[in-house]
């Protein structure tokens, strides 16, 4: 039965497809505005209007997909942009966007200090719109702008559009970054996609079609033969990161995924490699910090100087734009997991 026929059975469209705005009231989350989306596919997600239109919560048939850090949801007013201060308010969630001027390790460059992962995930969205577009197949559309700009410094903006069709287990994200300043500027971006329990467990299967896998440091090199293996939570575990050169398909796309055979579902990420030409795996099997990061990015993440030196740093001329496209899909069953591989 299609949506038009289904509407004959209902009194209000909220029975089938809804998006609602709400505000959190307690603790450090007080004042945070969120958009809650249900589309009758079994998939449910929230978008954080106060924090860059990121996606803190994603679940399928009541089972959680992302990793929620010990800080939980934190209002952007608590943001500490010095050094590792980012971690005090790092919700993680399913998606945290990092950038727009640095993504990765904190550093000093040309006399200026940059904190971990930049500012964009702590900038409230403006010009926000959210609605359900009525069509033969209706869809929800969320849009907004974030300004990562400073007087006497670099001025970048991010326009984000999130769409999701009725009864489809898929979220599409389309980002446009623009240099709104008058001089050429560096630009880094990283999509910190975080998989957590119960989707992530010791029996979960990781799919990353890699041409090469490079450990970020000596510690990660010691676990290179296990980069694709999940493990039991270990209180003494220290994070390991790997750079992957992804194999792309005929459309210049790459797909990665995590699947839990016990729950018989998973999640995949489809990446446009033409602009997101680097990929980082963040493996953290710690007790209470049990998370797998799948992180499309446009540069390496070991500081600005390193990215400049190795040639991965990106630049935007005045008024120049760059577009980033990602899609996140729930995989319902083993067959869908196997069929998305290439």
Q: How many domains, in number, for the residues?
A: 1
Report the major sheet. Answer: 8 strands, antiparallel
What are the secondary-structure elements, in order, as H or E? Answer: HEEEEEEEEEEEEEEEEEHEEEEEHEEH
- Calculate Rg over CA atoms: 20 Å
**Which residue ranges are poorly predicted, with pLDDT under 50 across at least 5 consecutive positions?**
none
Please tally the helical runs, counting DSSP H or I stretches of 4 or more residues: 4
Fraction in beta strands = over 45%
The count of strands amounts to 24
CATH architecture: Distorted Sandwich
Strand neighbour order, sheet with most strands: 11-12-13-14-24-20-19-16
* Span of the ends, CA to CA: 32 Å
Envelope shape: globular
Mean of residue pLDDT values: 97
Structural class computed from helices and strand pairing = mainly beta
Question: Helical percent range?
Answer: under 10%
CATH topology: Beta-galactosidase, Chain A, domain 5
Q: Class in CATH?
A: Mainly Beta
How is this structure best described in words?
This protein has a single domain, classed as Beta-galactosidase, Chain A, domain 5 (Distorted Sandwich). Helix content is 6%, strand content 45%. It contains four helices and 24 strands. A hairpin with a 4-residue loop joins β19 (253-260) and β20. It starts with a helix and ends with a helix. The mean pLDDT is 97.
